[in-house]
């Protein structure tokens, strides 16, 4: 056999090629993803593409046992990484091998794999865990609600840490399979499509699949005893609604609202374009909270949303989020306006469609009934701060900004923007500045000043969001055009649009116990 003689310099080069990166080249992933409001949320160093959650829940004791498998890709050479979880962990495996783990802070699970992980490699992470979610308090609050017959995970901006390990920030979206074992007679509700259901030895397993990218806070779980209705849309999408059997006096109003989900979604498609997910629905568990949440494909509604009768406006709001907030998610929680301003404006558009007050009339009413010294005007919808993230100004002043845009660029371009945006950023993330640039591109107009006035200045703007002279007023707003002719009288005593009361009743949509 011929042996080649290698000179020292060539040998050194060969060794550099043969030896993998040294330990010094591997560093820990960041314990936060970099959010400006919630620096501890999410983690750095990897990106999750899929969650497979296999759970068992006992309603009588609130005991949740889980095995979560995460499929991820490394974004750096990782010596260790964090997951977000509040329950007690018994074992972690990375790429099939047992990994060391410890905890830090309120919800950081710190994992050290048996071997460092190279950048841009696929990795599987299996976490076995258990605990009682209702006993987990982070920052003094909980996203898990106990009900008389089970429990519910639904909250914003955090809920995942109470029931599964994750990279808990909207920047890292993934698909989900959620399999839940519950005692016979109970149901488990989650996102997406119910793939299968089977019973054995007193337990029933429900297998759910959400096949489009989903933020972790939009994943939901509800276990209890529900009345369930099912249907299909004209396009064949499955519709599933669930109602706790003990909603009392709110039961009828809840059904009268949520059973209109398909109708509302079809109308929203005419405004925002094709519905982006694989199923529709909503659920109302017997919780004591008052908020609603856009949990992907299957919004959560508190019974109190229907305490004063049916309210389709809240259904409009949460379904609008499927485009604005779910398909296109925030890049940072300070960008909350691109969720809430649009969901509130969709309620104004529904009012316009139903003949209960045009968007212009609603804009005029909001503007005229808020005095200049009202603290409402000091909140900046484009960056409200974590304490005011769900302030009324983010919703109503946020919607005023959209009416101002509509009047500036006209209906044709305005509705082209509303429909084009969810396609432009489908299943991704975006910032307020991205929307401003997109609106400028489609309209051909400079709009930075307009958005600065309505989203960032902590004062009441000098002029309301009313149509400019010479611009075509909205075709669907003859009453608004007439009202503009008597602006002085209207300012003295603004007429309350017929839809206002029902819209105002939804102002608790995202109130929670956190703030």
From TrEMBL:
<dbReference type="GO" id="GO:0016285">
    <property type="term" value="F:alanyl aminopeptidase activity"/>
</dbReference>
<dbReference type="GO" id="GO:0008237">
    <property type="term" value="F:metallopeptidase activity"/>
</dbReference>
<keyword id="KW-0862">Zinc</keyword>
<protein>
    <recommendedName>
        <fullName>Aminopeptidase N</fullName>
        <ecNumber>3.4.11.2</ecNumber>
    </recommendedName>
</protein>
<keyword id="KW-0732">Signal</keyword>
<dbReference type="InterPro" id="IPR045357">
    <property type="entry name" value="Aminopeptidase_N-like_N"/>
</dbReference>
<feature type="domain" description="Aminopeptidase N-like N-terminal">
    <location>
        <begin position="49"/>
        <end position="218"/>
    </location>
</feature>
<dbReference type="InterPro" id="IPR027268">
    <property type="entry name" value="Peptidase_M4/M1_CTD_sf"/>
</dbReference>
<feature type="compositionally biased region" description="Low complexity">
    <location>
        <begin position="482"/>
        <end position="498"/>
    </location>
</feature>
<comment type="similarity">
    <text>Belongs to the peptidase M1 family.</text>
</comment>
<dbReference type="Pfam" id="PF01433">
    <property type="entry name" value="Peptidase_M1"/>
</dbReference>
<feature type="domain" description="Peptidase M1 membrane alanine aminopeptidase">
    <location>
        <begin position="310"/>
        <end position="454"/>
    </location>
</feature>
<keyword id="KW-0378">Hydrolase</keyword>
<dbReference type="InterPro" id="IPR001930">
    <property type="entry name" value="Peptidase_M1"/>
</dbReference>
<dbReference type="GO" id="GO:0006508">
    <property type="term" value="P:proteolysis"/>
</dbReference>
<dbReference type="Pfam" id="PF17900">
    <property type="entry name" value="Peptidase_M1_N"/>
</dbReference>
<feature type="signal peptide">
    <location>
        <begin position="1"/>
        <end position="23"/>
    </location>
</feature>
<dbReference type="GO" id="GO:0008270">
    <property type="term" value="F:zinc ion binding"/>
</dbReference>
<dbReference type="InterPro" id="IPR042097">
    <property type="entry name" value="Aminopeptidase_N-like_N_sf"/>
</dbReference>
<keyword id="KW-0479">Metal-binding</keyword>
<keyword id="KW-0482">Metalloprotease</keyword>
<dbReference type="InterPro" id="IPR050344">
    <property type="entry name" value="Peptidase_M1_aminopeptidases"/>
</dbReference>
<feature type="compositionally biased region" description="Basic and acidic residues">
    <location>
        <begin position="502"/>
        <end position="515"/>
    </location>
</feature>
<dbReference type="InterPro" id="IPR014782">
    <property type="entry name" value="Peptidase_M1_dom"/>
</dbReference>
<feature type="region of interest" description="Disordered">
    <location>
        <begin position="482"/>
        <end position="515"/>
    </location>
</feature>
<keyword id="KW-0645">Protease</keyword>
